[in-house]
Amino acid sequence: MSKYVVEQVKLLDRFSNKSVTGTLHLTATHLIFVESNSTSAQEIWILHHHIASVEKLSLKTNGCPLLIQCRNFRLVHFVIPRERDCHDIYSSLLRLLRPVSYDELYAFSYNPKQNDQQREEGWQLIDLAAEFERMGVPCDQWQLTDVNREYKVCKTYPRDLYVPIMASKPIIVGSSKFRSKGRFPVLTYFYQEKKAAVCRCSQPLSGFSARCLEDEHMLQAISKANHNSRYIYVMDTRPKLNALANRAAGKGYENEDNYSNIRFQFVGIENIHVMRGSLQKLLEVVGTRSLSMTDYLVGLENSGWLRHIKAIMDAAIFLAKAVTVEGASVLVHCSDGWDRTAQVCALGSLLMDPYYRTIKGFMVLIEKDWISFGHKFADRCDQLDPDPKEVSPIFTQFLECVWQLTEQFPQAFEFSEWFLIQIHEHVHSCQFGNFLGNSQRQREDLQLKERTYSLWAHLLSEKQNYLNPVYSPSFAESHPVLEPSTQAYHFKFWRNMYHQYDRSMHPRQSILKHVLTLKDSNRELEGTVQALKTKLQKFSVSTSPLKPQTPPRERSLPPRPQSLILGAPLLSRKEVQQEEDEEVFGEEAMEDAPAITGGERTVEGSSATENGYGELMGSFGSKNEPGAVTLEFGVARMTC
Amino acid sequence: MEFAELIKTPRVDGVVLHRPFMPTVEGTLCLTGHHLILSSRQDNTEELWLLHANIDSIEKRFVGSLGTIIVKCKDLRVIQLDIPGMEECLNIASSIEALSTLDSVSLMYPFFYRPLFEVIEDGWQLFVPEEAFKDLESMTDEWRLSEVNKDFSVCPSYPSLLTVPKDIDDESLCKAASFRHGGRFPVLSYYHKKNGMVMMRAAQPLTGTNGRRCKEDEKLINATLCAGKRGYIIDTRTIAVAQQAKARGGGFEQEANYAQWRRIHKAIERSNVLQEGLIKLVEACNDQSHSMDRWLSKLEASNWQSNVKEILTTACLAAQCIDREGASVLVHGTEGTDSTLQVTSLAQIILDPACRTIRGFEALIEREWLQAGHPFQQRCAQSAYSNGKPRSEAPVFLLFLDCVWQILRQFPCSFQFNENFLIMLFEHAYASQFGTFLGNSVAERLKLLLSQKTVSLWSWVNRPQELERFLNPLYEPNNLVIWPSVAPQSLLLWEVPLQMHEMPKEHMDCEISMC
């Protein structure tokens, strides 16, 4: 498809009357807006896969409005001068954002200029067999089973599964026949200290009275594998009412009378449809212009979003306590065992194991509990022309729960929220192969490892950008198990996720960015010290027994992600000096501009009018043209 | 009166102290005239020294002969004392009750406190109006320092020296004063160096129902306008409230008489409503059993965050008029001692980088709160836990600090001070060993001889040893106007004064300062 260009397009700010003019480019993969103003020239790149909906509003005097909503919570509002152009863009986008086959996804055309070997290495970074080994599995009580090697027992599980020693193949097969989609109980996390296991499965096909001896044996085997506890918990993560309703359809939950030594527990996390509706309501509320505090708080409450987040967190805390305090094994399920079950198992493991709070460990956790166990990313994240009823922000909720924990335990995580947001970005971008498809089997069929690149390698290559500057490994040692507060007031609205692209909502200076800068310059200075020491030694001046160190190759600071949270990239010291004492008005921090070489530290202040203090319109005498950007848009740069 | 008469049991052994987020301490409880002291009498263990003046209310409970006193403080801390022996417990409780509700100012601790440090720089002499006026003189000659209120007869709540337009004589000032609530005629609050625009503050005009006018008042504020320029009057009340005020002799500036001014009404709550909000908010925070929905609805019902948003919005509006519109501004509400000061002081933090330094912020509080006549003693007599009949208590100053914290959160590198500094000011406004926040006006403070008989808070705070705690390691001075976002999503609940955490930020700060 050839590139399509429309000029004189207005981009309206979502929360103010501000607008900028620029050129719209439509390419095969991106919709790009380039601001015409030569001094700031912000660029916005929108991947077609990120677009959730395009809406053409009715024609106005200044042109034809086009409203684009993205899955990363970006909302852009263009006004295109000619209706025909608007229509062309609109219909092209409609075609582009509904790919019908996997081959059309960006991942299959994306090429980061790596050779085959580099790509293979990228895919080998995360190794789940090694992860189970790290947990101490296989061991005398748990073994690797090859029963699903050919995906014959369960199509949505991975090939390698870990089960109790006592679970023979007939038991496994029998149990799988008694579970929705054949998702029988398997190990997902092993808490070595107490030999307690976290297992996951789907709901039993118990109906009103059906039972299955093999399934009962399976649970018994899990129980027997742990000598520390005489019982296991079975956590049904659904509300009791939902589970009861499922019985009528021949599904349901475990009858405590039939299973010996189980403690059955409902947790009450709502289903995917409720979660979808909840997010919708939340976004409607926070997308309102001139939102009052009352409407915000009432809207937050009515959306139920934080209530759902708390429910997931409560469940994970229950799981972690049962395992670490009581030393009991826990079996977690919901209906199919790939949504709520994934949330609770992953979050519970993160509470129990500091490894999952590191950058690499978090990747492993996602790879294990989400990707390999068949969370339906393609359906939930709307990757291919989808069933709207299957779309749901289940994974987003998991990321948010982790964020809530980073707020409570700022020192416990190696990564900052920017890492979580970046993962969220790529779950929807379809730029990397990791999240494509609904199951491992499907991914193998698509030959993703041969045809696409791994996100994890990409993220690790820019690890610097995702580090949490106040992370303390010693905190992990003293707090191996996190015990978060479940007080309602500790759950907050994640502004940097849901308003990631709404500049006016953000703090104008970022602590994160600032501390990262300090750390960088510190590192740089230490390098200089070493280099000087080396020189001294070379000239035999040194009397101290210092070993010579290689001087740092370059003195430049590492690149920063172009994030609104982190603000604009840094200016090198030399350039700063040139700009000294120079206040520039009429510009803002650049957003998403690729390859900025010399941004500068900016107070990302926005104009007063943009903030909606309001009421000055029609002020006598000084009726400004709406496009008179200088006054309304003035943001001074900070010189330092 | 002797304090000893009120102390029935001066000392009890074996008392157990419980505090949130901290280990329990067992030790000896002592009551003195001004303090409740608990000491474990071991080396290296912390002692609790609690000012009786900080106690808002107490509750007694008994299980057998073990008594428990729950002490709820004005700075919103809650501690629990387990006291063996019913009689001792009752005695301690009644002594605390008596000592914490002494009405006479001259019995307050600041009059008895002797500093253990040498006062190098006397805080009482740090921020005198003459000095501030010198700064102003270096920028403009349009203003003069008037002594019209020398004996506080023109306006009892104003200081003796006031900055007014050069061309307005003292006689006109007196006439204007008689036209404003409490005699608070328009005076200079802030001069914006960048464009020469000014912010003034006053109390409401006494137009009454028959639309009284005062030529001198009109002339006074018109004198602050450049030729052909117009100004804005920001009335912190809604138009409805301002209308109602007419019936009680108050009112607002009529367009006909103030043709060069455009009036804007905002909706900052009256102080008694703010107090109810604080009580509701503290209740909501203390109930640990809330579901998410209940918490959010209680938070909403307290209106606390709405108040923060409205005050900040109004301050931003005032700053916008001055900096962006290039217009002068007059701010007032009813009395001109509460919402008016919130707005004028916050606007200065937005506009003037000097106010974001420690010294500058102290000067701001001195100028716009203490000397401007915010009735600290009345407003901070009781807090959220008081069982007493509310008189004129209100968390006006706490809300101001909350708003400063919001700006600080949005511009974490633009302030020389940190959150601890704001918390410290909040605590000392309610109970302190220093005299700074005693009294309701300059006149009252003079009468109490505070500068001779008590130590100034600033004398203590400005010592290098103390300052260290209050410094923001991320501070990088900048000369810019800082526009905060007032979207509800950008405003957070200030948790630390609400005792929801064990000062986690301090933790962060020290981490940061190490790296």
UniProtKB/TrEMBL annotation, chain A:
Domain spans labelled Tyrosine specific protein phosphatases: 303-347
Record Pfam families: Myotub-related, PH-GRAM_MTMR6-like
Domain of life: Eukaryota
GO cellular component, one term: nuclear envelope
Recorded GO MF terms: phosphatidylinositol-3,5-bisphosphate phosphatase activity; phosphatidylinositol-3-phosphate phosphatase activity
Domain spans labelled Myotubularin phosphatase: 122-498
Subcellular location: Cytoplasm; Endomembrane system
Residues annotated to bind substrate: N271, I272, C334, S335, D336, G337, W338, D339, R340
Lipid metabolism found in the keyword field: yes
Sorted UniProt keywords: Cytoplasm, Hydrolase, Lipid metabolism
BP GO terms, sorted: phosphatidylinositol dephosphorylation
Region (Disordered): 540-563, 598-626
SUPFAM superfamilies per the UniProt record, alphabetical: (Phosphotyrosine protein) phosphatases II, PH domain-like
InterPro entries on file: Myotubularin, Myotubularin-like_Pase_dom, PH-GRAM_MTMR6-9, PH-like_dom_sf, Prot-tyrosine_phosphatase-like, Tyr_Pase_AS, Tyr_Pase_cat, Tyr_Pase_dom
Cited Gene3D superfamilies: Pleckstrin-homology domain (PH domain)/Phosphotyrosine-binding domain (PTB)
SMART domains recorded: PTPc_motif
Family note: Belongs to the protein-tyrosine phosphatase family. Non-receptor class myotubularin subfamily.
Descriptive protein name: Myotubularin related protein 6
UniProtKB/TrEMBL annotation, chain B:
UniProt-listed SUPFAM superfamilies: (Phosphotyrosine protein) phosphatases II, PH domain-like
Main location: membrane
Membrane-topology descriptor: Peripheral membrane protein
Ranges of residues in domain Myotubularin phosphatase: 123-498
Subcellular location: Cell projection, Ruffle membrane; Cytoplasm, Perinuclear region; Endoplasmic reticulum
Keywords per UniProt: Acetylation, Cell membrane, Cell projection, Coiled coil, Cytoplasm, Endoplasmic reticulum, Membrane
Similarity comment: family membership: Belongs to the protein-tyrosine phosphatase family. Non-receptor class myotubularin subfamily.
Name recorded for this polypeptide: Myotubularin-related protein 9
